[in-house]
């Protein structure tokens, strides 16, 4: 197995497997890779054409294609028994030595024209505030319970997160994950089962979206295509379907 280069990426114009000339919405056609090539390049672990976030942040990884070379570069970053997650144009087709742990169709949605925000009045016994590294353990515990996607102690480093607290207990949150020139992803939207149906998710998402829009950027998100209830909420916030991806959560068995 080749030696892993855990350096920051080389410049996008010379990076192997980079999308030369890609800009604007075209960056969204490979959002993880392009986030790691641009706004999150300082966090990227790189080997050849493959890039990934550190495992302490999460398994999201990017490759330019499903060639054997790309999978071998990815294997070096995964490490023995390591897990990575990809957004692919086509159904996952890894070579021998990989196990598909989870798949599924994803919808990518973009909010080009956010509607006028409707005020979300919260009960007097709850508080919404920005989350900090001191909240990371509670964030991980809430994500483990609700499964909004991979969330680890360092995931908070990806962007701004907001939470709703009830009697000093974190009961709902949302924040930012992938970041590309002109776009930022809304992610980790989740509510404790005991506190659902109170409008906390839309309130938090609207707050995260306002933070993104204030930077002059466009909110995006990714959802399982069969999650009709969540997609209805996203449409109500101004998100519209852009394209599909195939999720591939893979374990390196070599």
What does this structure look like?
- With 254 residues, the protein is α+β, with helices and mostly antiparallel strands.
- The chain has two domains: 24-104 and 247-252, 3-Layer(aba) Sandwich (Aminopeptidase); 110-243, Aminopeptidase, CATH 3.40.630.
- 21% of the residues lie in helices and 31% in strands.
- It contains five helices and eleven strands.
- The protein has helices at residues 31-37, 68-78, 136-146, 200-214, 228-236; strands at 45-47, 50-52, 61-62, 83-88, 98-110, 126-130, 161-166, 169-180, 183-191, 218-224, 240-252.
- Strand 7 and strand 8 (169-180) form a beta hairpin.
- The model is unreliable at 1-18 (pLDDT under 50).
What number of domains? 2
Our count of helices gives 5
* Spatial order of the strands forming the largest sheet: 4-11-5-10-9-8-7-6
Rg (C-alpha, Å): 18 Å
Q: What does the main sheet amount to?
A: 8 strands, mixed
Helix-strand pattern: HEEEHEEEHEEEHEHE
CATH class of the largest domain: Alpha Beta
SS strand fraction: 25-35%
CATH architecture assignment name of the largest domain: 3-Layer(aba) Sandwich
Low-confidence stretches: 1-18
Specify the helix fraction band: 10-25%
End-to-end C-alpha gap: 9 Å
Structural class call reads alpha+beta
The strand count comes to 11
CATH topology group of the largest domain: Aminopeptidase
């Amino acid at each position: 197995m080749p030696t892993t280069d855990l350096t920051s990426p080389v410049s996008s114009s010379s990076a192997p497997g980079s999308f030369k000339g890609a800009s604007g919405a075209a960056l969204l056609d490979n959002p993880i890779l392009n986030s790691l090539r641009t706004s999150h390049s300082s966090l990227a672990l790189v080997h050849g054409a493959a890039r990934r976030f550190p495992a302490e942040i999460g398994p999201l990884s990017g490759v330019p294609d499903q060639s054997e070379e790309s999978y071998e570069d990815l294997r070096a970053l995964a490490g023995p028994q390591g897990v990575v997650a990809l957004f692919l144009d086509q159904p996952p087709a890894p070579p021998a030595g990989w196990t598909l742990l989870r798949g599924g169709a994803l919808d990518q949605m973009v909010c080009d024209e956010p509607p006028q925000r409707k005020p979300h009045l919260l009960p007097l016994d709850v508080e919404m505030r920005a989350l900090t590294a001191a909240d990371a353990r509670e964030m991980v515990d809430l994500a483990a319970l609700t499964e909004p996607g991979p969330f680890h102690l360092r995931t908070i480093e990806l962007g701004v997160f907001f939470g709703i607290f009830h009697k000093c207990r974190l009961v709902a949150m949302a924040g930012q994950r992938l970041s590309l020139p002109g776009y930022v992803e809304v992610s980790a939207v989740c509510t404790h089962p005991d506190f659902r149906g109170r409008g906390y998710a839309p309130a938090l998402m609207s707050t995260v979206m306002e933070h993104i829009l204030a930077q002059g950027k466009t909110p995006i998100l990714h959802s399982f295509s069969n999650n009709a209830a969540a997609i209805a909420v996203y449409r109500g916030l101004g998100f519209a379907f852009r394209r599909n991806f195939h999720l591939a959560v893979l374990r390196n068995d070599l």
